[in-house]
Structure formats: C-alpha cells, structure tokens
Prior knowledge:
By secondary structure, this protein is of the alpha/beta class. It has helices at 19-31, 50-53, 58-65, 71-89, 106-113, 163-172, 212-219, 233-243, and strands at residues 10-14, 37-40, 94-99, 103-104, 122-124, 131-132, 138-141, 144-151, 158-162, 192-195, 199-200. The strands form 2 sheets. Strands 1, 2, 3, 5, 6, 7, 8, 9 and 10 form a 9-stranded mixed sheet that branches. A two-stranded antiparallel ribbon has the order 4-11. Strand 1 (10-14), helix 1 and strand 2 form a beta-alpha-beta unit. The longest helix is centred in the first third of the chain and has 19 residues, at 71-89.
Amino acid sequence: MPAADAPYPIFVLTLPGDEARRQPLLDRLAGMGLGHELFFGIDGREGLSPAQDAMIDRPAIRRALRRDLCDAELACALSHQAIYRAILTRGLPGAVILEDDAIVDAPFGRFMQTGPHTQADMILLDHRCGRFTRRPVAMLMPGVAAYRVILPPTLATGYVLSAAGARWMLDACTPLSGTADWPCDISRLGAIAAAPRIVGHYEQGEGWTHLQGSRARHKQDTLPKGRARLLSRGYWALKIKRARSRRLY
C-alpha cells in the first residue's frame, strides 16, 4: 500500500470516443510534465443499465432538487463514485480528479509540485457559487488560500480527494441522490476550496458538453417552491448559514 504522503495520481474522467474533448487538457498536462491516467466513466446518453439504475434513488433526487435528473447527469455522478471506489480498491492515498474539459495552467502545475495535499480530505480546485468561511483556514501554496465550505458550491471540474474522503463520499452518497456536484453535503466532510481557483472551466456555450441539452429539458419540469418551506427549521438554518458566510465566486 502506498504511504500516506505518496503523490496523488491524476485521474482524467472521460468517455470512450471523446479524444477531441480531452486532448487540450492532456496537452496541457504533458506540457507541465504531469502524468495522468484516463478513467473511463459511464456514458448515460443511451440510457443506464439495470445495475446502474439500482444504484440511484430517483424519488430522493426529485425531493431534493424538485426535478428529475437526465441519464447523462446520473451517469456523470456514478462515474465520480467509480473513481472513489478505485481509490479504495487500489489502495491509493488519494487522487486529483479532473473532468476532461478542465482548464489547467501554471498554477495547477505549481500546486502539484507542492503535494501531497493533506490539508483536508477534499480540496475543491474549481468551484462556483456556494458559501464559505469569511477567513481562510489554510494556505495551499503561495498566493492561494483555502476556505472551508459552509454551503456546497457547484462544479466538480477539478478536486483533490483523500482515501478517507473517498470512503466518506461513498458512505454518504450511496444510493445516489443528487448531482455529481455534489450528491451529499460536502461541508460535513470538512471540504475546503481554493481561492483563487487552481482549475478553470468553460462557461455555458463554450467548449464541449454532453449535458446541456438534456439538462435543459429536465429543468423545464422543475417543481415550484412551496410557501411551506418558510416555516421549516431547515430553511431558516440555511438563511443563518448564508448570513455568516461569504461567496468566493
């Protein structure tokens, strides 16, 4: 078994046939002298198998998100979970996980040189929205601070996950009841987020995407918010968390 301070491998989550989509990322990694491993995920564009569907709690998803997820979204989340299992079954100390349309540059190369990345069991290298502690809790490298997650952000473009974090994610997120970003409350894991961000992403309409069309169709069926939520304890707890935290992006 690798030592806990061994370098984390880089997994690039991709699909068979997506050579053009992932090539810019692979070229950037090669240019920085960083090795990687392609991790082929589940392609949900043609539907999911019965075994895959059995790993999903669709009623829980609808309750949580007030809409259904398309098969491509579910497949993306299941693919991330498959990486978590691989970390554990292969006895890895952790991994740096990049989706194949991630944008990496010199800051990512410097970050990889500073490893191992043991400041937390999950480090978000890219993120959007969410709420965070008002002050940083650590320095990831010169010029890049880390803020603890209070309300989970979106985006799973790039992140670091320890073996302990992988086990926690599988325990907390099985059966699947949410999107890849994130199917459970990663603030309970003690996740932290980099600021400035170390990994970039394409904005909507740029780059490659498998999800945009089918996701848009499912969002049209989103259930309306009921006024009863104003009377719930969870609603006001959320309001308090927002008031005591900050956005980064």
